[in-house]
Amino acid sequence: QSLKDEGFLIIGLTEKANIKLSEFNEDGPLVIVVGSENKGISLITQKYCDYLLKIPLKGKTTSLNASVAASIFINHLTQLS
Question: What CA–CA distance (Å, rounded) separates 1 from 29?
Answer without folding.
Answer: 14
